[in-house]
Amino acid sequence: MIIPVKKTKLSHQILIQLKKMIQDEIFPSKSKLPSENELAKMFGVSRAPVREAISVLVASGLVECRQGGGNYVNEVSLVNLLDSATLEMVSVEEVYDLLEMRTIVETAAVSLAATRHTKKDLANIKMALDEFSKTINDEQTIGDEADFLFHQEIVNASKNSFIIQTVGNLRELYKQALTFSLKKNVGHKRIREQVFQEHLSIYEAIHLKDPETAAFHMKRHLTNARIKLGDTRVKPIEL
């Protein structure tokens, strides 16, 4: 159903509805969108806000404008490094795969960090942990920046140039998937506290220079993230 739009920020409201219609496969992947004139009639507006909304979809990679052939819905894949405008359209299974890869890479990275970190590395990890702790009681904050920084500092402390470069190359992808995951914790203080405690356990193991315990807690932390998102391929890791 088309929801009548208000007379303010028309292009934004149209954008939201078009994204929802694509997500719901009213306009499935590889299908051609109705013309600007047809969409304008559907939404009861002029062509201008429709054109603006479509330009955003094209810029984000969700829609492809073909010369002389109209606008087509692209197949959205997380691997395409799409921006936040299209991340919500990817399948959750792809997020599971990314978290699986993170589990493999970061479990190794934290083990190295536990034995190779400097005082400065430890201070940076603690600073990121403290920043993340501030988000626990803030129901409006996602906490993705502080969470990402915590994991990034651990990777840096591994002192392995290939791990650092690999994670660096996937920086935006990591951040987008992290935001996707953490959004589900907003408004749930108990879950956010649990995530903080998982981070704290990782930090303490690094501080104690205990690679095995650090790896255990990192694997448990990322496994819990996958389970919260519904990944049935993994089971909880008990303490």
What attributes does this structure have?
239 residues, mainly alpha, Arc Repressor Mutant, subunit A, Four Helix Bundle (Hemerythrin (Met), subunit A), 2 domains, two-stranded antiparallel sheet, 11 helices, 2 strands, 3% strand, GntR_C, transcription, DNA-binding, WH_DNA-bd_sf
In one word, what is the shape? Answer: elongated
Oligomer: single chain
Distance between the termini: 49 Å
| Content of β-strand | under 5%
Mind telling me which CATH architecture of the largest domain this is? Up-down Bundle
Number of structural domains: 2
The CATH topology of the largest domain is what?
Four Helix Bundle (Hemerythrin (Met), subunit A)
Give the number of helices: 11
Radius of gyration: 21 Å
Total beta strands: 2
Order of helices and strands: HHHEEHHHHHHHH
How much helical structure, as a percent, in the residues? 55-70%
Sheet/helix structural class: mainly alpha
So, the CATH homologous superfamily of the largest domain?
GntR ligand-binding domain-like
Low-confidence stretches: 81-85
Order of strands side by side in the largest beta sheet? Answer: 1-2
Main sheet makeup: 2 strands, antiparallel
Name of the top-level CATH class of the largest domain: Mainly Alpha
> What's the rounded overall pLDDT mean?
84
Pfam family, one: FCD
Domain HTH gntR-type: 8-76
Protein name: FadR/GntR family transcriptional regulator
Keywords: DNA-binding, Transcription, Transcription regulation
